[in-house]
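fwd from M.: "can u put these together and see what the complex looks like"

so here's what she sent:
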Amino acid sequence: MKTIGFIGLGIMGNAMATNLQKAGYQLVVYNRTKEKASQLVAQGAELVDSPAMVAEKVNTLFTMLSTPEAVEETAWGPNGFAEILKKDALWVDCSTVNPSFSRHMSFMAKSHNLRFMDAPVAGSKAPAENAELIFLVGGSQVDLDEVRPMLEVMGKKILHMGDNGKGAALKMVFNYCLGMSMVAFSEAISLGKSLGLDEKRIVDIISGSPVMAPNVALKKDKILNSEYSPEFPLKWLHKDMHLATLTGYQQNVPLPAGNVVKELYQMAKAGGHGNDDFSAIFGFMQKLSGQ
Amino acid sequence: MKTIGFIGLGIMGNAMATNLQKAGYQLVVYNRTKEKASQLVAQGAELVDSPAMVAEKVNTLFTMLSTPEAVEETAWGPNGFAEILKKDALWVDCSTVNPSFSRHMSFMAKSHNLRFMDAPVAGSKAPAENAELIFLVGGSQVDLDEVRPMLEVMGKKILHMGDNGKGAALKMVFNYCLGMSMVAFSEAISLGKSLGLDEKRIVDIISGSPVMAPNVALKKDKILNSEYSPEFPLKWLHKDMHLATLTGYQQNVPLPAGNVVKELYQMAKAGGHGNDDFSAIFGFMQKLSGQ
Amino acid sequence: MKTIGFIGLGIMGNAMATNLQKAGYQLVVYNRTKEKASQLVAQGAELVDSPAMVAEKVNTLFTMLSTPEAVEETAWGPNGFAEILKKDALWVDCSTVNPSFSRHMSFMAKSHNLRFMDAPVAGSKAPAENAELIFLVGGSQVDLDEVRPMLEVMGKKILHMGDNGKGAALKMVFNYCLGMSMVAFSEAISLGKSLGLDEKRIVDIISGSPVMAPNVALKKDKILNSEYSPEFPLKWLHKDMHLATLTGYQQNVPLPAGNVVKELYQMAKAGGHGNDDFSAIFGFMQKLSGQ
Amino acid sequence: MKTIGFIGLGIMGNAMATNLQKAGYQLVVYNRTKEKASQLVAQGAELVDSPAMVAEKVNTLFTMLSTPEAVEETAWGPNGFAEILKKDALWVDCSTVNPSFSRHMSFMAKSHNLRFMDAPVAGSKAPAENAELIFLVGGSQVDLDEVRPMLEVMGKKILHMGDNGKGAALKMVFNYCLGMSMVAFSEAISLGKSLGLDEKRIVDIISGSPVMAPNVALKKDKILNSEYSPEFPLKWLHKDMHLATLTGYQQNVPLPAGNVVKELYQMAKAGGHGNDDFSAIFGFMQKLSGQ
């Protein structure tokens, strides 16, 4: 079966690559911290020393990195893959980046005779492990058809939103909503607790109610136990809120509520919660209330 | 069957009183605008000229009014019901008010030898008509047991949250979440549209996704058709956000995001949308973006 | 010379009453905490046990209290002065309250055949001691002419803004600007410090520059020494921001920036800085930045 | 006398170059819109066709451009000056840019054997014309001594803040304060007017008071006449607020109030006021209030 490159083996990337491997794909992988590849290697993946060395061996390359800066460095920096990939190879970037960056990557790729697809995912650790991600795709129909079998072993749904950048755009909208919902929940519960309502009871009632995003309920145990081990680190959600408001600036769209919410994550990050799960904003805001 | 008083026959009150009537209760009703009682009267309700005249005829009185000021005036103002109700009568206030006001009403009622229950509802027009409201109750177990049969013909669920004021507290938390969600949605969709995503498609995707409060989906048609006839008028949601932030002040709880969201509804209200459905904040914010 | 009543002997009230006394007026004073009157008593003031007892002895009464609730209680509560004052007596309220409250006090006073004037002051401790306050007056020209000699021994300037409530209105506008300026300063300096600029130098440059309210410079020493003993306690400035935003709600005026600034003072207050000088918001926000 | 290059002849650049010319310096100038150079040319300046052509003729080059993007393009883009300037030439960038960009320019310049100084100015049109600017300088003492005579014919004061980027840092702090002050003023006056205070009178009182930045008073006539011809266009102040909040993100500093204020300028810009003077935020916010 086909050999695929996979760069970026964090929580998400590891789970996604594992599903590709289980489906029979042969993987060539790279990660800055090599230890994270150990399980994949044990199952037969080839671990190489640089993004460029991945590029030498594949015609289809997935990246799953944490920031636009990391994507740029990995693609175009020293020992980057972009100048090594063969003509007409397909680079599928699953990283959560801003749409203007994604369009820039597309432009750069095309000017180097590469094909590009933005395919960030909705879903965090568990859906990644269970192949239940939703792919939000920007790119051509032909390219999508080519990688569809691979996406289908990692996810349960593919939303093709249009040309390059539109997958990244929808992902940004998703994470924007997620960031807003968790802050709305945090403030609402602080308010309720201050009025004598039982914390566990209102966390249950509100998180299961139609006025709250269902995804918030996934964090109930973390919240009630004040146990914020990272599934989706706060610093990355903060970065996403930052990129969304940056995009608002570029597109001339006012986002007053989102900008304030972004600053609340900023406070939590400056307060030392950047590596906690993003639901730690709940605990941080309770503390701000003296609760 | 028992005779019940019902004061406040707006969109919600009318639907609730109608369900009591259908279940066989005899109603004595009052509304400032008498025309709104016509259907109830046609079905056998007695319409009287003042809150006080309702009070003369019943031992159980429901109120469903739009603001704390309206509740206070109806209860304690000229021709108010509170000084006329018989000793030990039970006043059930279903209005959405702030908890400190509700506790104040409770205090006043008790000092006049009346029983009081705060029982605001979750749910808007359709759930009210279909007897699918959720009652959020603050009051004694005994009083709740007494009116349970009545609540059950108007709603599908009763959440007893504790003593007086705690029903009002939970209702405030609910509407806070609702107000936040609709603004989060409005900003997110503005952002997505500005990036070239198709409006109808992302309204569908986001409103049905786990990062958005399900209740937002109820407003999809209004949003896509820019048709904002009121189910829950924006001015009342704005009032609820105001009362929530006022409560934040009283309880020493910072609500930075909620205060900004409140001001967005304030802008929409100052811009002439107070009597539109609260989902008109969507259209207002699109306009702010020049979309 | 004339006998004058003075109720409320905090930092400001004490200094103001002292100036009246120095000018030869005979004072009858009341304060909840009696010790605060000791200096005035030593100089000849008569200290009595209740607001009502002040009212028995004077036809001109000044109040300088910290909140609308305190004014209401002192005037109309048990042993309040309002029902005791002689017909046509003049009550001059120097407290910082919201305009709608001030108009309500005016209405109440007139319905009890009293005259009312709102005369809050611009200026804090030092201007109060040096008789350099600015009186912001709402009331009739005749009443103002009557008390002008007294105001002139306490202040250096009188701004007659119109009828009752308009003095309170201008005071609210002043404190709004003050609250906003101190937060703007705090954020600006945090930003500058994070970029390696020397704290003392930029505090000097910015506080003395035409882009910053001159009053901020009065707090330079406190800020540079992190010494926040109260001249104007943070909790009262927070109250003023709260009353201003409440007024925004009543008057249908959006105040998005002010509402966020209010919440920053709220955070500082919930964080234990309510009794510090309001410039403690500077230290609080540095801490939020991890500086 | 020495020949100096000057690129960027907008409102500010034109006034600054004119003062250099008056002092006897021979100028070689470039501007994208050539017409703006006509007065300088009439007085003896040489107008050339590209930044590169300026670079061929001078060893000291001033730039006064509107955005980081414009600076980057002019220096390093096609026909840019940076690769043409002689070794050891001194580039003085007076543009208002973010500090990280300024440090990046410094890095790029040094790696091309050029000297760099960031020297943005405090002051707008009138101070520029009257040689009353304040230069905020980041760079070496030696370089500053070299250009001091030139800066002194354009300004009245030089603040040397440290090495490259620190002049830009202070400028950002200045404009941040300016942007905050104008919004604070706008909200405060809206509030006052809604309470019946006379607009002209409170604009006078507040803008001249110690709770408001003195620079706001410079805009009094514009505000009272609703005449917003640009001295400092709103879109550039909005850009500065954007760069400041972007810097907050980079430096891990929460700026909750500034982010909301930024969004208010964003609304005004999306509403068509980008090319008006930034004080048009006043008129925009009055309109938001329905005033």
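replying to her w this: Chain C has 14 helices and nine strands.
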